Each structure stands twice: as structure tokens, then as C-alpha cells.
Task: inverse folding
């Protein structure tokens, strides 16, 4: 089946078996291997990409479901140089083996937009107050991304630096 | 994954007609369905994508809300009207899944998500829900995320949704369009079926029936709470959850609706508990009786025996807090 979408600003057309997931389309058919296949069941977040501005698990979506969509992968996060978030991950050692990092980056980038839009989370005390990016909020909002090297302190510090926010409750 | 035909429905009529084909399925978010297809627990012959039908709108109808079936769980949880007037629904949604999944999972899909019973997922084991007549491996097997209310000799699979628990406490109705083009509105309570001896039939929906929206009436209580207890702090299914919608008047419980997750084979609600509490002054002895009533017909297995005590404690804690 024919499929057209935009990946990192470039229009792409593919001819795919309907069974191909968005993740496999990116990795195997467009050679964008930044997005990683961890669990392949939506539990680890290594495959996180941004579709239409929202973070999703690329492993739990069929490529065919994305006709006309605008997709951003980790390869599309940087422009001339590294993004603020990517630079912060380096400065704070936000990785060890690095396998989860592309998913962490895409997830964090879109998560910061959710916070900016005032989306509440499970740990937000007042659903109707502006969202604050505390350590507890960060842990909750990033719970869909696992790091088996357990680099969470570095990841959290990097995201907070990128957000230009100081943690309100140092955990 | 087994091969299937994929089609993008142009309108609801085409979608419903196409879904009448044997073993055809609708797909919207796909977060549960694709997972099950990868494991070959499900092998639909055709997928009808309803993601582009414009069913993702949310609209006010007087004091009520009509929530489109393909609106994402994330958008619904963040909606300002829901946050202000139906906070128990926002809370339930935010307590479920992860940020990525909530951006994809839809209202209708959440209602129709399948159980996470590990034996349902393991195609090498017997499971009456996956393969009718083969037996239930969970009974006498390993249990934890299993039901203790509404179970049968053939199935103890748990209904996994948080959202549906809040919607039951809020008396939500489901709008369904049939392949013939007619529409009907059914109580969420009537959408689900107890497992009995046909656990593979989970809802009253017929082939070609499409959930188009959820109708949310004005909440009858301004005190709302969703309490979820689970094995880890985030991104886990409920061991026990309680949705409470309460109105107080002159120190008495004027109205109360309680629904439960993590306990039932369907999003659980028990009118006897609400009758017991209505009109009463909140007090510990009353809450004890409510908790006993909830568990009077519980049928735990060895691995789920803890849910009897846990369920009672969570209910009593919620009642204490929400009536204070």
C-alpha cells in the first residue's frame, strides 16, 4: 500500500505491507535508525517519536495510520547544532549506554510542550492551576521512558536545565 | 503478525458496513489492538481505520458533554471543562498508562480495551476468553491482576480501564451507530457483560456497531475523587481503584456514586453500597458496613486474596476523605 507523510520536514512516499509499524517504517525503510526498538510493546518508550506535535510510541502504531502526518524523530530534533535539550543531556550525563536516549529526547521535548500548554499530570495537586515542573512531576510525566542504566538523575537534571526551570522540591 | 486488509474509512456508514465482514475490526489509536496482533492473540482479517472520521470532537450539550469516540485520552484529561466539572474523569485518565499512550489511545478504544490477564496474552496456554472452551489457566494458576467480583468458573479476567471506572461513577452513556445507519444510546453499565460461560463475549455490541461518542451528564456531586493503588507509582494497572462522586447536604451524604477498578470483570458498581450510604451521616461504622457490602460476594483466589482487605481499606479511606 502507498503511504505519504513528512519525516523531519521531508516529504516521503513508501509502498508498504499494512503490517509495518511506524517504527519499522522509519528504521527499516527510511534508514532513520535513531528511534530504537526496545520492548516493541509500548512499555519502554525507546521508540518515542513526535507526531503532529505529540509524543507517541512508534512501535504501537501502523505506518498506514499516518497518511499525511508530520513526524519528528530524534534525527529531526537538531538544526544547525544540537538542540538545547540534547546539549543538556551531554552536560548532565543523561545517558550511559545511550539506547533509550533518542526516546528520552523526543519524549522530553514533547512533554515540555505539554507542560507549557498547562496539561496536568497524575501528581498535579490542583487540576486547574498552571503546571509546575517539579521532580515529582518530571518522574510522573516521563514514566513512559525506561532507562535500564538508571541514569534518571542525569536525565532529570538535563530536562530541567532545558526547561529553564529549577526544581521546586529537590528529591 | 498475521496479514490483514487495511482500509481508511471515508465515513461512518462505510466503516460500519466494512466492519460487518467476518473478523474485521475497527482501529483508532491501536495501542492495545496492535500489541495483541503482534502476539497473535488477535488476528483480524481486516482493519478499518476510523481515525479520520472527525469523531474526535468534544462539545457541550446544555450542562452535559458529548465526547467523541476518537478523542485521545490525553486531550480528554486536559480539557478545561472536564478538569473543572468532572475532575474524577481527568484523574482516572491521568492515573492510567503513560504520556505517550494517552496521546494515542482514544475514548472508545479505552472502553473496549482487552484484559491484561497474562494467560490471555500467552497463546500457549488455555484461555476461555481467547479460545472458548479450552479452560481458564488463571484459576489455579498465578494470579495478581485478576478480578474477585463478577467472576465465573470460566474466567477471572479483570477489566483494566481506569477511565471506564470514572465514567461508571458519572452515569455515562455510550452512543453507538449500527451498520444499518441507526443510532442508539446505551448506559455504560449495559455495554459490558459478565463473563459467565461466554467470557469471549465482553460487550453487547454487534458486528458493525461503532461507538461514536460518550455522553457525560452533569455530575451529581461536586466532591469527586479517584484513588488508585498499584504496584509502582506510575504506569501500572490498578490493584484496586475507587472513583467517588459525592454531594453532601446538612452534614449528610445527599448523593453518592462509587465505582471500582482492579476488582471486577467489568468496571464495578454496586447500588447496595450507595443505598446504604445515602442520607447517612458519615462515620467509621457506616464505612465498615459499606466495605463489607462491597466484598460480600467476592471470590478471591490465593493470589488475589489480598484484594479483599485492600479493597475495603481503599474504599474506607476514600469515603473518609471525600465526605470530610
Result:
Amino acid at each position: 500500500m502507498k503511504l505519504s507523510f513528512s519525516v523531519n520536514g521531508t516529504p516521503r512516499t513508501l509502498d508498504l505491507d499494512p503490517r509495518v509499524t511506524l517504527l519499522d517504517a522509519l528504521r527499516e525503510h527510511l534508514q532513520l535508525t535513531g528511534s530504537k526498538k526496545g520492548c516493541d510493546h509500548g512499555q519502554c518508550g525507546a521508540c518515542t517519536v513526535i507526531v503532529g506535535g505529540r509524543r507517541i510510541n512508534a512501535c504501537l502504531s501502523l505506518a498506514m495510520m499516518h497518511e499525511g502526518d508530520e513526524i519528528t524523530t530524534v534525527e529531526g530534533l537538531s538544526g544547525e547544532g544540537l538542540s538545547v535539550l540534547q546539549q543538556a543531556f551531554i552536560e548532565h550525563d543523561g545517558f550511559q549506554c545511550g539506547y533509550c536516549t533518542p526516546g528520552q529526547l523526543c519524549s522530553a521535548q514533547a512533554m515540555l510542550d505539554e507542560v507549557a500548554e498547562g496539561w496536568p499530570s497524575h501528581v498535579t495537586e490542583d487540576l486547574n492551576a498552571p503546571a509546575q515542573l517539579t521532580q515529582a512531576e518530571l518522574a510522573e510525566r516521563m514514566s513512559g521512558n525506561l532507562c535500564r542504566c538508571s541514569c534518571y538523575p542525569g536525565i532529570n537534571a538535563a530536562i530541567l536545565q532545558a526547561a529553564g526551570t529549577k526544581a521546586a522540591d529537590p528529591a | 503478525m498475521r496479514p490483514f486488509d487495511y482500509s481508511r474509512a471515508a465515513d461512518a456508514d462505510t466503516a460500519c458496513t466494512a466492519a460487518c465482514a467476518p473478523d474485521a475490526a475497527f482501529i483508532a489509536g491501536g495501542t492495545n489492538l496492535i500489541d495483541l496482533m503482534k502476539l497473535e492473540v488477535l488476528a483480524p482479517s481486516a482493519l478499518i481505520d476510523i481515525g479520520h472520521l472527525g469523531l474526535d470532537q468534544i462539545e457541550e450539550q446544555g450542562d452535559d458533554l458529548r465526547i467523541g469516540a476518537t478523542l485521545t485520552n490525553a486531550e480528554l484529561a486536559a480539557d478545561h471543562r472536564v478538569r473543572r466539572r468532572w475532575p474524577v474523569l481527568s484523574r482516572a485518565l491521568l492515573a492510567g498508562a503513560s504520556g505517550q499512550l494517552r496521546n494515542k489511545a482514544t475514548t472508545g478504544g479505552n472502553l473496549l480495551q482487552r484484559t491484561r490477564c497474562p494467560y490471555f496474552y500467552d497463546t500457549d496456554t488455555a484461555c476461555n476468553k481467547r479460545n472458548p472452551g479450552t479452560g481458564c489457566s488463571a484459576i489455579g494458576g498465578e494470579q495478581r491482576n485478576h478480578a474477585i467480583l463478577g467472576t465465573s468458573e470460566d474466567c477471572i479476567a479483570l477489566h483494566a480501564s481506569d477511565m471506564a471506572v470514572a465514567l461508571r461513577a458519572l452515569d455515562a452513556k455510550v452512543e453507538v451507530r449500527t451498520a444499518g445507519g441507526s443510532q442508539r444510546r446505551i448506559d455504560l453499565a449495559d455495554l459490558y457483560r459478565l463473563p459467565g460461560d461466554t467470557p469471549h463475549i465482553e460487550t453487547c455490541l454487534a458486528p458493525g456497531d461503532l461507538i461514536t461518542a460518550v455522553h457525560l451528564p452533569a455530575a451529581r456531586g461536586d466532591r469527586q475523587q479517584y484513588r488508585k493503588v498499584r504496584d509502582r507509582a506510575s504506569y501500572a494497572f490498578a490493584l484496586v481503584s475507587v472513583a467517588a462522586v459525592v454531594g453532601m447536604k446538612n452534614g449528610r451524604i445527599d448523593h453518592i456514586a462509587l465505582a471500582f477498578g482492579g476488582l471486577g470483570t467489568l468496571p464495578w458498581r454496586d447500588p447496595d453500597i450507595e443505598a446504604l450510604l445515602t442520607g447517612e451521616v458519615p462515620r467509621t461504622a457506616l464505612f465498615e458496613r459499606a466495605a463489607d457490602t462491597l466484598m460480600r460476594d467476592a471470590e478471591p483466589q490465593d493470589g488475589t486474596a489480598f484484594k479483599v482487605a485492600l479493597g475495603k481499606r481503599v474504599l474506607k479511606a476514600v469515603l473518609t476523605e471525600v465526605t470530610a
